[in-house]
Amino acid sequence: MAKKLRIGVVGLGIGRHHIKGYREHESADVVAICDIDQDRLNAAGKESGISKKYRDIEKMLAKEKLDVVSICTPNVSHAPLTIQALEAGCHVLCEKPMAMNTEEAELMCRKAGEKKRRLMIDFSFRFSPMSQALKAQVDSGILGEIYFARTVWHRRAGVPGRDWFHEKAMSGGGPLIDLGVHRIDLALWLMGYPEPKTVLGSSYDYLARPMARQQGKYYDCEDMATGFVQFANGQSMAIEASWMAMRPENEFMVTRLYGTKGGLVQRNLDATYNFEAMLFTSEGDFCFEKKLAVAQKPVPSAMAHFIDCIIKDIPHDADGSQGVKVMKILDGIYRSAETGKAVEFK
Questions:
Q1: Measured between alpha carbons, how far is 259 from 265 in angstroms, rounded to an integer?
Q2: Strands (E), the chain
Q3: H-run or E-run covering 38
């Protein structure tokens, strides 16, 4: 049996999910946790049975000789804490979004290369039986050449309760960088991760800002954003994300791909993230549709996948370079929305 990798988790909100994910793998040992909130730190330690608790990542890195670190903190600290962990010689799994902007994301990738350490982004929507089955179908060539995608996440009333999500200086933006990042990655992954060339975007704050004022809260992000991306290979993609939208569903998620031989759709059926997927093809004068029946065999979590790839010394999914492409698109939409002009990447 391979030696167990020593793991530390920083940020114990979504970080608790990371602890559970790592425990799927026999070669993972979460030995330390870190959070600046003492109550949350104590609660997570009791819940997980982890006794080594820190409020300072520097002390944790110095004392624990870690192999892997998960960064699960507010977005503003993703880049500095990731770089700190890479400097300490650790592989890093960073929560989405990768960073606050493309420049930070590129710096993270450069540091990982310099230190010869792995950097993975937790694009968790890839790691489900349905998403993995869809990817296998697309890779088989059933859609032919994919030329267009539309990817969406709307909420009827879903502004996060934690205030830092609403503060651009802490989050980098609103629903686009919070929700849209997942649907953008899923579509890009299915499309083969093409290189973005041009982005046009719009953003709106008509609903959330008045609500925040009434509640006496600070709010300086969009509550809805839309974008259109053209890729260097000729593909294109439309994007929509909102925390507040006048629609019947409390949660509405859909990703559609159109190809020269067929199309697909993945959409949620309810607010509990219960999804269905359909494939559409044609032959002669006949059109066919097939509901994808997915065998519920276990799919490794992003954390277990990361550990497995480190142990086996094989490439891991969702690497930093893909995170940079997502950040380019997010940055482009926000910049285009602000200037009213399309953004071109060189």
A1: 12
A2: 5-10, 28-34, 52-54, 68-71, 91-95, 119-122, 146-155, 196-204, 224-231, 236-242, 251-259, 262-268, 275-283, 286-291, 343-344
A3: helix 38-48
Question: Looking at the domain that runs over 128-297+327-344, which CATH code has it been given?
Answer: 3.30.360.10
For strands 196-204 and 146-155, give the pairing: unpaired
The closest of 249, 250, 207, 251 to 225, measured between CA atoms, is 207
**Domain extents for the chain?**
5-122, 128-297+327-344
Note whether 130 and 291 are within 8 A (CB): no
Give the whole-angstrom CA distance, residue 124 versus residue 111: 23
215-242 per-position pLDDT tens digit: 888 999 999 999 999 999 999 999 999 9
The residues with which 196 forms a beta bridge, in sequence order, are: 231
Note the pTM of the prediction, 2 decimals. Answer: 0.96
| Two tokens, residue 87 | 């400097």
pLDDT band, very low/low/confident/very high, at 2 (cuts 50, 70, 90): low
5-122: CATH superfamily: NAD(P)-binding Rossmann-like Domain (3.40.50.720)
